[in-house]
Amino acid sequence: MIESVLKEKRVFYPNPELSKEARIKSMDEYEKLVEWAKNDFEGFWDHFAKEKIDWIKPYKKVLDDSKAPHYKWFVDGKLNITQHCIDRHLPQKKDKVAILFEDEMGNVEEITYGELYERVNQFANLLKAYGVKKGDRVVLYMSMIPELAIAMLACARIGAIHSVVFAGFSANALRDRIEDANAKLVITCDGGYRKGKVHNIKSVVDEALKEPLDSVEKVLIYDRGIQKFELIDNRDVVINSELKEMEKECEPVILDSEDIAFILYTSGSTGKPKGVQHAVGGYLLWAILTMEWVFDIKDDDMFWCTADIGWITGHTYIVYGPLAVGTTSIMYEGVPVYPDAGRWWKMVEKYKVTKFYTAPTAIRILKKVAPDEPKKYDLSSLRILGTVGEPIDPESWLWYYENVGNKKCSIVDTWWQTETGGHMISPLPGATPMKPGSATKPLPGIFAEVFLEDGSKAGVNEGGFLCITKPWPSMIRDVWGNPQRYKKTYFSFKGNIYLTGDDARVDEDGYIWIMGRADDVINVSGHRLGTMEIESAINKHPNVAESAVVGKHHEIKGEGIFAFIVPREWPENLEEFKNSINEVVTNEIGPIAKPDWIVLTEALPKTRSGKIMRRILRAIAAGEEIKQDISTLENPEIVEKLKEAKPI
Ligand code: PRX
Fold first, then answer.
1. Are 306 and 336 in contact (CB under 8 A)?
2. Nearest one of 84, 21, 96, 53 to 296, comparing CA atoms
3. pTM for the whole thing?
4. In 453-573, where do the E strands start and end?
5. What is the mean pLDDT of the segment spanning 487-511?
6. For residue 500, which atom of ligand 1 is closest to its CA?
7. What is the C-alpha to C-alpha distance for residues 88 and 84, in angstroms, rounded to an integer?
């Protein structure tokens, strides 16, 4: 853990103006909600489920834990998410902008709730025309364009299960996900904008499906007209004109609260990425409540989450959450530094953004390349600033607070995961005193605790495993096709409590400080990658005998990838070798997984039973003292050599 975080003692109080208008105005009000959930757990959730959701048919039971850890929420309740995200806003908000899209080139598209209704219905009718039915899986591999959100909602309209794959993933990674989900359709677009250039998207799908997969019947292409592509006979369909001809009405399919809303793949410490399954009712409820509590959404807000929809943050806080509460969701396709580091601030000024949500890695880049840039723009519309995806270092927090928020905005450092569906630990903007670097306290209804390895409760400031001790509505329901993995990964530590995979400590005020992952997962620029995944990719290189990957602190990315590689033959040209490793990793996973440092070694430190000593490798990468006893290793002499080695 970074030294400065341990010493961090500053406290910042919410702006009284903000508290006055907020839904939850004080810590007293927060504590009351927490107590309510503690004393009457089901009554608490029952209240909000009834208040926030228009059930087509009411549920019979709030929580069924008879098959724990496979929990069921709002049993037998019937609903459809798109009715909440679109239909129910139409009487008052037909002409309000639902999605405000801008791309790097400055093209803008405003889609009102009325238009969204028609376009989602048309897309849903198109899916039906291609034989998609409730429960079918549809993989979406698209750039950040409105059609991606529309396609997701179209799936939700008819009860199909979407699985969005981040468009930065390689063809191999995409193929794995299509195959695992057994998808019937793949939806894509021609290309996307990034750093002022067009990157190919459709051709990646072609590469992924070069060897056809039995389950995939069609590939639908939305053509933006920015990139030429080939059409494969009997498989590919350009949908632009068909879409326009579709009926603008499509009855929503009535779904069960526990029907699968979507699958989203995420990395774990072992094996291939797992398909995290979310359920319709619970996911929707928590998306709504967190929009209201954490972003304190009001009717006149302009909400901008800069995430990519390929990750859970984009699912919950660009698409489902903002639309479910009827706000305007800004969607931007591109990087924060194009054409310059003022791009985002310019957009905040232009659209009078009130709530802005981004990742620490973006804050660090903007702070580094143009620390004074925010001052050139009028950012006075901002009320709440959010961060997500990785711990934020106090200095970046402070820069964000002072330079972007002008010391008037609350910063909500939201801790959560793909598996949690929505925020779990976060300040409430009108109530919680903020400590830079701490995600502060669990939201009402969420019960978080830190345990030591032996299962006992950690003491004050003692690091341990962060766990969620009671179920919550938007929790992961299963790992797609692998219930055993669900139990083993999340519920094998201590009874039926959920193991998050993060290390954390709780300070003397009950504030939670996330210390990073406890497992073999690396968080690179807020992107979650399994070390095993990266190692398997590196091992595909013809001149690699073995490899081990660990995380190491990185100034911009938070964590960078440090790879120890045992080559079969010592390469003559190190630069060439490094490039060829990068190429393999880019092909297998995507450019985000390229190692930042590579050390070549004749062997890896191993125990006598052949286990790679990752802890030792982590210490070597960090340049830290090695605390373990190395005398019991199979090859203790390698440790000294590795300490001397210079990364390439
Ligand atoms: O390690 C935690 C880190 O991101 C992990 C979850 O990654 P993913 O499922 O990709 O979801 C990211 C977006 C929700 C967590 O296990 N993480 C997320 N938010 C924070 C964080 N670490 C520290 N502080 C946060 N606010």
1. yes
2. 21
3. 0.95
4. 464-468, 478-479, 498-506, 512-517, 521-524, 527-530, 544-554, 558-567
5. 96
6. 16
7. 6
Question: What sign does the CA torsion over 337, 342, 343, 345 have?
Answer: positive
Q: Residues lining ligand 1, judged by CB closer than 6 Å?
A: 266, 311-313, 388-391, 413-418, 439, 500-502, 514, 517, 523, 528
Six-digit token string for 72? 């069921």
Please report the sign of the dihedral spanned by the C-alpha atoms of residue 442, residue 445, residue 446, residue 450.
Answer: positive
What is the spatial distance between Cα 14 and Cα 55, in angstroms, rounded to a whole number? 36
Pairing of strands 384-388, 328-333: unpaired
Residue nearest (by alpha carbon) to ligand 1 atom 8: 417
The runs of H, that is alpha helices, within 72-170 are 81-85, 90-93, 113-129, 146-158
Q: For 173-189, what is each residue's pLDDT tens digit?
A: 999 999 999 999 999 99
C-alpha 523 – ligand 1 centre gap (Å):
8
- H or E segment and range at residue 410: strand 410-414
C-alpha 416 to ligand 1 mean position (Å): 5
What separation in Å is there between the alpha carbon of 393 and the centre of ligand 1? 14
Choice from 264, 309, 313, 415 to test ligand 1 binding pocket (greatest atom count within 8 A of CB): 415
Q: pLDDT averaged over the chain?
A: 96
- Tell me which residue has its CA closest to atom 12 in ligand 1: 389
